[in-house]
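Shift notes (night). Ran Methyltransferase domain-containing protein while the centrifuge was going.
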Amino acid sequence: MARLTAYSQHNLRGQDFIRELIGHTNLKVSDIVYDIGAGTGAITAALASKVLHVYAIEFEPIAAAKLRKNMRGYENVTVKDGNFLEMKLPNGGYKIFANIPFHLSSLIVHKITEDKNPPSTAYLIVQKQFANKLLPNYDGFTGALGMMIGPTFGVRIRRPLKRSDYTPPPAVDTVLIEIKKREEPFIPLHQMASYRTFIERCFADPEFFAKTPQAKIGLRKGIKPSEMKLDQWVQLFNR
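Came back to this:
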């Protein structure tokens, strides 16, 4: 997986700050946690002191070699070289905590939420603009991906970050988000593939969206897909 400076990655400053971020999660000593795009292991090391086991995933060869070297003294860390997007996710329970490459945020969220065994909770550091579009009832414009995952996952911002929290500082604002699997999905799981296709078509095809029964659920005339909230999408799909 690509990184962020030359490989699209901005590193968090210091172990104390990383531990403080982890304190905004529900990670427990019994958890298995995946660190996606682990770099040289700063987040991995902080996680290793908190949870049962950490799987640190890194694609970039130089960073992966340093990661292996840095993690030699950690018995509860397993380093995996390779592209997370091409990896099979585990069969058992797990969580995710990661400072992911910004340009891969959408692909990573798609993968972890659409897998047959998604994480119970994922904590991801992402661009604020991207995070806002995942929120189910954001006051601004919503995004197709957020509405796709909304019936099965709750999304919220756990903590905003400052640009000075990174080395080097990014040119965008970022936040730590929580993507948590719902105990009771708003749409039956066997209908979710059809629901995601419906959302995708509505956002991509104005003519298709215009033919949906919007008036039957009380939507105002001329509403755009990006102006709709999650509960409205669920109602529209079920008509």
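The chain has two domains: 11-181, 189-238. Residues 11-181 form a domain with the Rossmann fold fold (CATH 3.40.50.150).
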